[in-house]
Design goal:
By secondary structure, the chain is of the alpha/beta class. A hairpin with a 2-residue loop joins β3 and β4.
Length: about 190
């Protein structure tokens, strides 16, 4: 028995090393993207310069679009905590005046109920017109609006804009925001 004791530290070191090695036991790191191409984690990180199915716009372009006919529908997809069947106001949120806040619809994966919430509210906001201009935004360095543009394109909407720097850029331009509440989830 005394001979086994000197080997104990070596066995512990070997076990620890196997956990740290690339092929050893470790916690699963979630994938950045879902199999169908939506960003699934690290939503607040640098975003790409383009989005499939949409056109990237800046503040000046958005201001121009807001003076055109048909006027685009502004859709904020910033997250709001959802707990026990209701939105929880964890912090005040403001968005661009006249926006429709479809909270959590920019997540990488949506349950069928959240997908229906997104689709039904887009249908209502566009009066069923798939060519109605839609502008999706969140904050700067936020993948939620990128996901939402892709999701809207998948639903057949054809005039999609991604206001990439979102409410942060709007406020930096000293433009007004308004207190916001998300559209109620059924």
């Amino acid at each position: 028995m005394p001979r086994a004791l000197p080997r104990l530290p070596c066995l512990l070191l070997a076990a620890a090393a196997s956990c740290l090695s690339p092929g050893g036991a470790h916690a699963e790191t979630p994938a950045l993207f879902t199999p169908d191409g939506y960003r699934a984690t690290l939503y607040r990180s640098p975003t790409p310069q383009e989005v499939a199915g949409g056109t990237v716009i800046d503040t000046a372009t958005l201001q121009h679009l807001l003076n055109q006919q048909p006027r685009p529908v502004l859709i904020d997809v910033y997250r709001r905590q959802w707990l026990q069947g209701r939105f929880i106001e964890d912090e005040p949120h403001a968005n661009l005046p006249g926006s429709l806040w479809l909270a959590n619809t920019g997540d990488g994966q949506l349950t069928p109920a959240w997908q229906a919430y997104f689709a039904q509210n887009l249908q209502r906001a566009t009066a069923g017109q798939a060519q109605q201009p839609l502008v999706f935004y969140c904050r700067s360095d936020c993948w939620l609006s990128w996901n939402a543009v892709k999701r809207a394109a998948g639903l057949g909407y054809s005039t999609l804009y991604w206001y990439r720097d979102g409410v942060d850029a709007w406020q930096q331009a000293n433009l007004p925001v308004q207190p916001a509440q998300p559209v109620p989830f059924p």
